[in-house]
Amino acid sequence: MITVTVCVGSSCHIKGAREMITRFNDFLTKEGLADKVELKGSFCMERCGEGINWMIGDETLSSPSAAEGAETFRKKVLGALKKKKKTPKAAPKRSRKRRS
Ligand code: FES
Questions:
Q1: Domains and CATH numbers, the chain
Q2: Residue 84 alpha carbon to ligand 1 centre in Å
Q3: Of the candidates 2, 12, 46, 53, which lies 20 to 30 Å from 88 by C-alpha distance?
């Protein structure tokens, strides 16, 4: 599960945090990823001058607009989910004994 936290403080709200959350949610629903990503809201992250502030796990991000945030979200969430996907290990080869 990936946790995405979006600041819903007044400055980020005015810049479009609510629209960005809606875009995140729409993307997750459309791609069938809603059970893999948890969306959370947060009080002011104390970076009000930097844009709409949000986090993916421990990584802090700032987006100038909801549209740019949604594009960054798409790229980073898909990248993080690919990393989490485990590739199955190949089964060990069995030696066959010949019967004579
Ligand atoms: S309101 Fe979002 S960082 Fe302050």
A1: 2-84 (3.40.30.10)
A2: 30
A3: 2
Closest atom, ligand 1, to C-alpha of 7: 2
Task: Give the three-class secondary structure for 79.
Answer: helix
pLDDT score, position 75: 95
pLDDT band at 54 (very low <50, low <70, confident <90, very high): very high
Contacts of 33 (CB under 8 A, 6+ apart): 27, 77, 81
Distance CA 36, CA 3 (A): 9
Cβ-contact 11, 44 below 8 angstroms: yes
Of all helices (H) and strands (E), which one includes residue 49? Answer: none
- Judged against a pLDDT cut of 60, whether residue 89 lies above it is answered with no
Residue 32 above 90 pLDDT?
yes
Q: How far is the CA of 37 from the centre of ligand 1 (A)?
A: 22
Ligand 1 centroid vs 54 CA: distance in angstroms?
9
